[in-house]
Amino acid sequence: MNVEVRQHFAALAVAVARNRDQAAFSELFDFFAPRLKSFLMRQNASVAEAEEVVQEVMVILWQKAHLYDPKKSSLSTWLFRIARNRRIDAARRQRNGTLDVHEPLLLPAAPPAPDDLIESADREQIVRIALTQLPAEQVTLIQMAFFFGQSHSEISAATGLPLGTVKSRIRLAFGKLRTLLEAGGVDSAY
């Protein structure tokens, strides 16, 4: 690659870094993507793996072009080094496909504490009692929305009520529930 071409690519990378220049990025993508793919396939990457790594490299170019220093290397050297490193990382992940059994995200959630279960049951009971103090049509709408997971539109279609009426009745029911629960105005033998 001659000096003029290298300088041209460096200028395009600077335009991507400074201005998010899509035309510059497109030109770089069109030139480097097929070359990177060929390079990776010569490194025994499958077509799909090579394409995936190329996509990663081009995303890095778009997001981190500001890290490229034309004084240290040509853009092609920088991109091919990134591609090589990504390929090595992918090969390592593939070889080490075992899961870490101690990974916190893979561990089951701890069972709730007994006092949390009691508090939850108490809250449920209080809410159920408060629901009995609402008009039946509001209770039905709340059940459809929150117990059966229906959207307001689905409730409107099922009940024949206008969508605005469904929304306002649910909002009204929540207002009444909030008032009952905050004021402790739940009538019960509880």
Key structural traits:
2 domains, 8 helices, 0% strand, 190 residues, Arc Repressor Mutant, subunit A, mainly alpha
* CATH architecture name of the largest domain: Orthogonal Bundle
C-alpha end-to-end distance: 84 Å
CATH superfamily of the largest domain: RNA polymerase sigma factor, region 2, helix turn helix motif
Structural class: mainly alpha
Order of helices and strands: HHHHHHHH
What is the count of structural domains?
2
- Unreliably modeled segments: none
Shape field: elongated
CATH names the topology of the largest domain as Rna Polymerase Sigma Factor, Chain: A
Q: Can you characterise this structure?
A:
The structure is a single chain. The protein has helices at residues 3-19, 22-42, 47-64, 75-95, 114-132, 136-147, 152-159, 163-183. The chain is mainly α. It folds into 2 domains: 3-95, Orthogonal Bundle (Rna Polymerase Sigma Factor, Chain: A), CATH 1.10.1740; 114-183, Winged helix-like DNA-binding domain superfamily/Winged helix DNA-binding domain (Arc Repressor Mutant, subunit A, Orthogonal Bundle). Helix 2 (22-42) runs antiparallel to helix 3 (47-64) and helix 3 crosses helix 4. The longest helix is centred in the N-terminal third of the chain and has 21 residues, at 22-42. It is elongated.
